[in-house]
C-alpha cells in the first residue's frame, strides 16, 4: 500500500476533480457487444470475484483498496460487461498534468480479443480530453504480454520499481506515454 501511494506524487502531486460525468454506453469490439459503465462501491463484491478469476484464485486488491480508489474524486474505474458477465476493468487517476493507469484486467476467456487495447485507447483519449501531458503505469517485470501491449500503444519504459509487488517479491517497470512534447534532463556523468 505504501508503494502504491507513492505513485500519487511521482510526476504531478496535485489532485484534480474529473470535471466530467461518465455516461454508460454500449461498444462493439471485434463484432461483440459490450456494456461500459463506471464502477461504484456497490460493485466491490463483483470486483473481488472478478479479481479472483483473473488472477487464478487470488484477489490482488482488498475490499478496502477498491473502496478507497472508488471514493477518490480524481479516479475513474470502468467495468466492461458482455451480457451479464464482467469481463474487463480499467482504472485511472487524473491529476493536473498526468493520468495514471492503476489497473487493467481482462478475464482469461476474453483475453487476446482487443478489449485491453480498446480500454487503454479509451483511457488515453480521456487523458487527452483532460489535457494530461502523459499517461503512466506500472507493469510487472515478468508480464511480457502487457509490456508488448503498452509498447504497441507508444509507452516507453522509464525505470524499475524494485520489489514493487511485495507479496510476489517482483519488480515493476514504470512506463510512460507522452501526450505532449517533453524533455527529460539527463544526468551528467
From TrEMBL:
Keywords, alphabetical: Acyltransferase, Ribonucleoprotein, Ribosomal protein, Transferase
Protein name stated in the entry: Ribosomal protein Ala-acetyltransferase
GO cellular component: ribosome
Coiled coil: none
Lineage, uppermost ranks: Bacteria, Bacillati, Bacillota, Bacilli, Lactobacillales
Organism expressing this protein natively: Lactobacillus gigeriorum DSM 23908 = CRBIP 24.85
Domain called N-acetyltransferase: residue spans: 34-180
CDD domains named among the record's database cross-references: NAT_SF
Pfam family, one: Acetyltransf_1
GO molecular function: N-acetyltransferase activity
InterPro entries assigned: AcTrfase_RimI/Ard1, Acyl_CoA_acyltransferase, GNAT_dom, N-term/lysine_N-AcTrnsfr
